[in-house]
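User: Hello, can you help with two protein structures?

Assistant: Certainly.
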Amino acid sequence: MKVTKAQAQANRAHIIETASTLFREHGYDGVGVADLMAAAGFTHGGFYKHFRSKADLMAESAACGMARTAILTAEADPREFVRQYLARAHRDNRATGCTMAALGGDAARQPEMVKATFAAGIESLLAEMGQRRPALSPDDEARARARSLDMLAHAVGAVVLSRACPDDSPLADEILEVCRDAIVASLKPPGPVAATPSRRKSR
């Protein structure tokens, strides 16, 4: 029976979702096309009806995963997002977590199309963070973008370092805790500036 256009699109989306999960769990080189298609419920031969290459699927699945992170970033309070991002639950569940933290290292060794997808995803996250800010002058906007980029790199790097430690290592938790507290503290709005007492001129 001929597959309808709508069904073909649904099948393609399902393959991308499955790939996004498996790549995050096992890495780009840790899962082959045949295993990926089997996990999605399709035959190996059907892969090239949807994608030109494995790299093509890698790029599309990365875009899918980072789009979800951008949505979460937009919907959550920044401090709460950081607390959840730098939590043990996220650290221990690569398959359902952030694509950048799970695959950033792998992406550095992949074709340019995959790297370009990661760059676009990072820009999308920075744009979501920027929408929370009031209108700023160009100089202030540049400084705010730099702070957002610093926070993003800090959070992603903390998860990567924590995952590099043994699962039961106290250091794994320490990395998350220290970085979480530092980032949350940096997001606190500044308190009121105390008035400086005026000095009377001596006569």
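That covers the first. Now for the second protein you mentioned:
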Amino acid sequence: MSFLRALLGRSKPAKPDLDRLFGLPSAAVTLDAAAGFTPTGTGSVAFRAAEGRAFADLEKEITALLDADNGPPVEQQRDEYGYTWLVVRSGSTDSMDISDLVTDLHAVNSSLEHAGFGPSLLCSLVGFSDDSGRRFALVYLYKRGTFYPFAPQPGQRRDNALELQMAAYVGNDLQVEEDKSRWFPVYGAPGLTG
């Protein structure tokens, strides 16, 4: 089968590796030291909600898990493309405290994956900003197991120079998506704008 795949020019898709999310704290330290960008304290997970009671119960279970024991507030939002976003706000913008936020995002992704809804997962993101008000997110592509920076500007434009610069900074900390055509825009994504 691999010979046929090579002959037809197809590659085997990468397996998701949720543990790569745990590289975000070291990337946050790098971004703070190199460029003055700190976490906004907000992250989110996007997925296509399935129909039925099982999925609705799972969403409630995940929200209850994260809200338990004075955990971070979790809110659910739907975007114009039909994706559901679970938004987690840790309240901390310290590069060293992003670990709790990443653990919460990992728990959301893992819960969905273990319940059989892995194919419904789209991406996770963590927002960053600097003192001048510039913002961007590190986006984790679930199906690729890679990250890319997304820096929106007003009018549904992107700051491509900032994205390339941030990708260069975190290249030693995270698996950056090499195929830039997969750096899709997530304009208005919850967790990116505040």
